[in-house]
Amino acid sequence: EVQLVESGGGLAQPGGSLRLSCAASGFTFSSYWMHWVRQGPGKGLVWVSRISRDGGTTNYADSVKGRFTLSRDNAKNTLYLQINGLRVEDTAVYYCVAFYYDSSGRYNHDYWGQGTLVSVSS
Amino acid sequence: QAVVTQEPSLTVSPGGTVTLTCGSSTGAVTSGHYPYWFQQKPGQAPRTLIYDTDNKKSWTPARFSGSLLGGKAALTLSGAQPEDEAEYYCLLSYSGTSVFGGGTKVTVL
After folding, report:
1. Is B38 within 8 Å of B91 (Cβ atoms)?
2. Closest residue, chain A, to B89 (C-alpha)
3. For the residues A98-113, what does the mean pLDDT come to?
4. Of A10, A46, A49, B87, which one is least surrounded by beta carbons within 10 A?
5. Is A46 in CB contact (< 8 Å) with chain B?
6. Across the interface, do A110 and B91 touch by the CB < 8 Å criterion?
7. Which of B86, B62, B74 is closest to B12 using CA atoms?
8. Mean of the pLDDT values across residues B84-94?
9. pLDDT value at position B69?
10. What is the residue-averaged pLDDT of chain B?
11. Do the bridges between strand A10-12 and strand A116-120 make them parallel or antiparallel, or are there none, so unpaired?
């Protein structure tokens, strides 16, 4: 069974840091591009970041660039999102998403986790 | 960073047809933006309905279809069912980054 289990969310103060983790199982983690997508309370989806299969390429939304760092450990089947300089507007459910592209680079399928809630408040 | 726009809300009668659109602040949406459409119901994670403009997932009902229409990506629902009431999000790709639209709340009434 495919599972993406996010953890590391919780209550944090503005200016603080958190590290989110996403543990993958049931599929070949190292074959997937991994993304984080967040959703503020009552708000829409926001694409946050992505990382290539080998971790060599990362991309970020402008709103998080310089504060968020995405990494992965393929040996541990785990994705990490280091969040520094937390802002109130970072409050959201953070979803871990796995995207699989075929050998020609075309999308094939994706998996979503259930999300972890990050609340930023003083 | 680009801004992706969707209608905030649309209402469709049961059995009726509605078209959701997805525009880009950078200009016309093309197949090169690899438009995706996601459906999200309350309390659930999103799930993919359409990818690469017009390709359906195995679970996507035949009444949903994707296209490019007037410089935008479009999701058409033909023969709306009560279970189609949900939030719909488009996602466009831009040279390494991706941007979601603000979502369209579809009410079947």
Report:
1. yes
2. A45
3. 91
4. A10
5. yes
6. no
7. B86
8. 97
9. 95
10. 97
11. parallel
DSSP E strand boundaries for B7-109 = 9-12, 17-24, 36-40, 47-51, 55-56, 64-69, 72-78, 86-94, 97-100, 104-108
Q: Which of B38, B45, B97 sits opposite A115 (nearest CB)?
A: B45
Query: Phi-psi bin for B103: left (phi > 0), alpha (psi -120 to 50), beta?
Result: left
- Gap between the Cα atoms of B71 and B108, Å rounded: 27
- pLDDT, residue A108, reads 86
- Report the residue of B50, B100, B104 to disrupt the A interface, i.e. the one with the largest count of A CBs within 10 Å: B100
Contact between B47 and A107 using a beta-carbon 8 Å cutoff:
no
| Binary contact (A61, B48; C-beta < 8 A) | no
C-alpha B77, offset from chain centre: 10
Give the closest residue to B7 by CA, choosing from B19, B15, B17. B19
Q: What is the pLDDT of residues A51-95, one digit of tens each?
A: 999 999 999 999 999 999 999 999 999 999 999 999 999 999 999
